[in-house]
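Tip: read the tokens left to right.
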């Protein structure tokens, strides 16, 4: 593990967070209602899956959009402090926040039915754990 591999993984993780966060923030209530119907459920409840189309089943539209905003904030926290070399402790803390967000926003019941999404969530958690471990450890910025 070296600094270059940490930057590569961090940039891929931040890019994924920005893309998914932008998609969530741009969702209209009408499109969200169609997404909720397509995923097989209503839009109520506070716990559930926020990743992919199944998030519509368990989260309200406001909560779904809030997860998108949190993803954008996490992406900024992963990249900006390291690039500016200021408050660099925020990078591993943001990676830990990404882990917490993915664990909170993922419903395990849906992961069993959609293996591609399950693999992507596990890969994202592993990437965030790798960044957190690397930036807390010897490759701290």
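Filled-in amino acids:
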């Amino acid at each position: 593990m070296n600094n270059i591999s940490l930057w590569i993984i961090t940039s891929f993780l931040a890019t994924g967070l920005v893309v998914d966060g932008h998609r969530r923030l741009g969702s209209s209530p009408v499109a969200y209602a169609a997404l909720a119907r397509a995923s097989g459920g209503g839009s109520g409840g506070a716990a559930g899956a926020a990743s992919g189309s199944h998030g519509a089943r368990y989260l309200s539209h406001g909560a779904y959009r809030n997860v998108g905003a949190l993803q954008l904030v996490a992406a900024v926290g992963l990249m900006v402090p390291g690039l500016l070399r200021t408050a660099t402790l925020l990078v591993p803390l943001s990676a830990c926040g990404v882990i917490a967000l993915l664990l909170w926003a993922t419903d395990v019941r849906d992961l069993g039915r959609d293996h591609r999404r399950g693999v992507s969530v596990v890969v994202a958690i592993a990437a965030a754990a790798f960044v957190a471990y690397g930036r807390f450890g010897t490759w701290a910025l």
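Confidence is low (pLDDT under 50) at residues 42-54. Helices lie at 3-25, 29-38, 55-58, 61-84, 90-104, 108-113, 115-136.
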